[in-house]
Amino acid sequence: MAKSKKNAKATKKKEFFLLRWIKGISEFFRGVSVELKKVTWPTKDELVKQTIVVIVICGILTIFIWGLDTVLGLLRGLL
Predict the structure, then answer these.
(1) pLDDT tens digits, 13-59
(2) CB 52 within 8 Å of CB 44
(3) Domain boundaries in the chain?
(4) DSSP assignment letter at 43
(5) Is pLDDT above 90 for 62?
(6) Is 49 helix (H, G, I), strand (E, B) or coil?
(7) Between vectors from CA 71 to CA 68 and to CA 72, what angle results, nearest 5°?
(8) Does this model's pTM top 0.85?
């Protein structure tokens, strides 16, 4: 019995690598489409609010880093 299973595996020929590659890509895109159906997209108002928050935080961090760079540059000039 064990011999027949072993022979069945040995006689099964592997698919051509290009076919496996194409099947893998198509399976990937099928999975992507399934996952995208589960996504809850933000409304326009939520998107605008979140965008404003991101821009404000980026501005604050920019000013903070600029100030820190200026202070450290001045300190370096004093030494």
Answers:
(1) 777 778 888 899 999 999 999 999 999 999 999 999 999 999 999 99
(2) no
(3) 16-78
(4) P
(5) yes
(6) helix
(7) 85
(8) no
SS3 state of residue 12: coil
**Residue with the two structure tokens 């020929």:** 13
Where are the extended beta strands (E) located within 1-79? none
CB-CB contact of 51 with 59 (8 Å)? no
Q: Six-digit token pair at 51?
A: 């965008």
Between CA 59 and CA 56 the distance in angstroms is 5
Return the biggest CA–CA distance within the chain.
87
Average the pLDDT over 5-18 and give the result. Answer: 67
Cα angle value 31/35/39 (rounded, 5°):
165
At residue 8, the pLDDT reads 56
CB-CB contact of 71 with 64 (8 Å): no
